Amino acid sequence: MELISCNNVSFAYDGNTVVSGLNFSVNCGDYLCIVGENGSGKSTLIKGLLRLKQPFKGDLSFNQGLKRSEMGYLPQQTAVQKDFPASVYEVVLSGRLSMRGIRPFYTQNDKRVVEENLSRLGIENIRKRCYRELSGGQQQRVLLARALCATQKVLLLDEPVAGLDPLVTQELYFLIEKINKDTGITIIMVSHDIQSAVKYAGSILHLKNQQAFFGTAEEYAKSSIGRGFLGGAQNA
Ligand SMILES: Nc1ncnc2c1ncn2[C@@H]1O[C@H](COP(=O)(O)OP(=O)(O)OP(=O)(O)O)[C@@H](O)[C@H]1O
């Protein structure tokens, strides 16, 4: 069932188009990787999917009543976020803020969802630790648990493994794959790690300021653009 559909969509800043010709759809339970070089429009599309930016042209529609507040988001990590002075528990609990609305307190259900996600990400035992004292891999687990607290439908992940060592990167990919398979949550991930995108994702969207490819990961690996990019990644 189609959850998100994008028909001839372009995005622009001040009338200058930065990405165009977007024609793709995301079904419930899909695992989509968005790839492309720096400046190709990936983050702009993520802003569009989060409804923080309107398409300049075309039609971007969200089906099955998918609300913005039902999309969990793990942003690119900034230096300020890495230094956030709160406990692991507080950071994960803050994922329930959008559900809380105007209620001044968290409910038992909010706390139950937090426990579920602390356990799912294997971080129950570090719940009292200060977030900024954790390793990069632990911080990403905490942010993933936080994003999961906000959704049962879609997770948007913007370069979740950037800056992590190979072992921690693998662990995070396994976790994301498990979440997708066990819970059916749709994954939309921006990544520069093409090898892993092809390995783990079901479909690939390649941007070059326009849509250069959309199809299955298998088709992408066989395509000339995919082979070119994979070759480039291998030689990088
Ligand atoms: N707020 C903005 N105002 C004007 N132009 C912008 C703005 N944000 C991005 N752009 C431009 O839009 C284009 C696409 O940028 P975007 O950040 O979406 O690319 P990206 O693929 O996510 O890049 P990266 O891999 O470096 O994160 C770039 O040319 C960028 O300079």
TrEMBL record:
<keyword id="KW-0813">Transport</keyword>
<comment type="similarity">
    <text>Belongs to the ABC transporter superfamily.</text>
</comment>
<dbReference type="Pfam" id="PF00005">
    <property type="entry name" value="ABC_tran"/>
</dbReference>
<dbReference type="InterPro" id="IPR027417">
    <property type="entry name" value="P-loop_NTPase"/>
</dbReference>
<protein>
    <submittedName>
        <fullName>Metal ABC transporter ATP-binding protein</fullName>
    </submittedName>
</protein>
<dbReference type="InterPro" id="IPR017871">
    <property type="entry name" value="ABC_transporter-like_CS"/>
</dbReference>
<keyword id="KW-0547">Nucleotide-binding</keyword>
<dbReference type="InterPro" id="IPR003439">
    <property type="entry name" value="ABC_transporter-like_ATP-bd"/>
</dbReference>
<dbReference type="InterPro" id="IPR050153">
    <property type="entry name" value="Metal_Ion_Import_ABC"/>
</dbReference>
<dbReference type="GO" id="GO:0005524">
    <property type="term" value="F:ATP binding"/>
</dbReference>
<dbReference type="InterPro" id="IPR003593">
    <property type="entry name" value="AAA+_ATPase"/>
</dbReference>
<keyword id="KW-0067">ATP-binding</keyword>
<dbReference type="GO" id="GO:0016887">
    <property type="term" value="F:ATP hydrolysis activity"/>
</dbReference>
<feature type="domain" description="ABC transporter">
    <location>
        <begin position="4"/>
        <end position="234"/>
    </location>
</feature>
